[in-house]
Write a structure and sequence with these properties.
The protein is an alpha+beta fold. The protein is about 20% helix and about 50% strand.
């Protein structure tokens, strides 16, 4: 079962009913403090449901740079660069219950935070 959250909206993708031993939760956002806050919420929720928590593990930050010309017509040497960074965290949960998955679907996260929940066998 995969659950995806983009800007607060979850999408549930069923792969069949199986007992889940582990869940991998990936959290992404453009701001590092939003990622850390969302990771803390997930860890507190998992500990309240007595699941074993491993993480949050910081994953490499993706850095994307875009270069544009300042002038439309002339001055090729005059350019400007913009960058966006995508910060990521991974949390692995063991001994997951159905109530934990239901509460994770209803978890309030700030706009701009993407969360992906994946079952690992």
């Amino acid at each position: 079962m995969d659950i995806e959250n983009l800007c607060g909206a979850f999408q549930l993708i069923e792969k069949g009913e199986q007992a889940m031993a582990k869940l991998e939760i990936k959290i992404k956002a453009f701001e590092a403090n939003l990622v850390d806050d969302a990771a803390k919420k997930v860890v507190l929720l998992a500990k309240a449901e007595k699941a074993e928590v491993s993480g949050p593990i910081p994953l490499p930050t993706k850095r994307e740079i875009v270069t544009i010309l300042r002038s439309v017509h002339v001055n090729k040497k005059s350019r400007e660069q913009f960058e966006s960074r995508t910060h990521k965290r991974l949390i692995v949960l063991s001994n997951v219950t159905k109530t934990l998955i239901d509460k994770a679907k209803r978890l309030e996260l700030p706009a701009g935070v993407q969360i992906t929940i994946k079952s690992v066998e």
